[in-house]
Amino acid sequence: MKKILIFAIILIINSTNIFGQSHTKIKVPQFEDEYSKTVSVLENGETDIDYKKFRESFLKSPQFKIAKEKRSKINELEKEIYKEMSNSNYEEIKKLTKEILSIDYTNMNAHKILRQTYKILEDSTNAHKYKTIQFGLLKSIVNNGDGKTCETAWPVIQVSEEYFILDMLDSELIEQKVDNNGGMCDKMKVVNSEGEKSTYYFEISKVFEGRKNLEQ
Asked: Per its UniProt record, what InterPro entries does this chain match (predicted)?
């Protein structure tokens, strides 16, 4: 009888752990707009979408204003994530990154961290899913120009996208200024880890469009 009772307790504990680990989900915004519907599609694993169109739909969604109001919250979550990384607390990392994506699903850094975490946990399905989304978002920027001039600049919707790309290029910002020669661009002078200097251009008309939407 005691053995049966102990076995039942073990089953309950294990079940609690399993459900606790899978409890945290990305919250899909409850707006009947293109952004919200596409977040739901992506979360269902349907990753073959137009990522440029998806990013731009975020600017028109009420969720964009919510995300801007929660910018400080996102910053706090990012700090917590890096703290948990040093402790290898993968379940907490998943929880925190999903909180960020519940606010801004276009956040490439959160997708990157989430797919890396799932890879460590050997969850190949989710690792592949969030890798596809991360690089879908990234390619929707870098495949629309070469970033070498203002005329061929990479089109972004948020300044945070610029810094994510510079980080992916292992480059540190030296100087940033607006360049109107051939368009509306951020001109970013950078240096990489080997000391080599480069200049990259980001097309920012959508950034200003987003700011205008916030005023409406």
From this structure: DUF4919
* Contact between residue 155 and residue 137 where contact means Cβ atoms under 8 Å apart: no
Closest alpha carbon to 40 in 132, 105, 112, 122:
105
Helix (H, G, I), strand (E, B) or coil at 15: helix
Dihedrals phi, psi of 198, to nearest 5 degrees: -145, 165
What is the helix (H) or strand (E) element at residue 186, kind and residue range?
Answer: strand 185-192
Which percentage of the chain shows pLDDT scores above 90? 84
How many CA atoms are closer than 13 Å to the CA of 174, on its beta-carbon side?
A: 12
Architecture of domain 29-142: Alpha Horseshoe (1.25)
Q: Round to whole Å and give the CA distance between 153 and 41.
A: 30
Q: Identify each DSSP E strand in 87-196 by its residue range.
A: 154-155, 171-179, 185-192
DSSP state of 179: E
171-179, strands of its sheet edge to edge: 154-155, 197-203, 185-192, 171-179
pLDDT tens for each residue of 40-59: 999 999 999 999 999 999 99
Q: How far apart are CA 35 and CA 25, in angstroms?
A: 18
Per-residue CA distances from 130 to 51, 83, 127, 213 (Å) = 13, 22, 6, 29
**pTM of the full predicted structure?**
0.87
Q: Where are the domains of the chain?
A: 29-142, 154-215
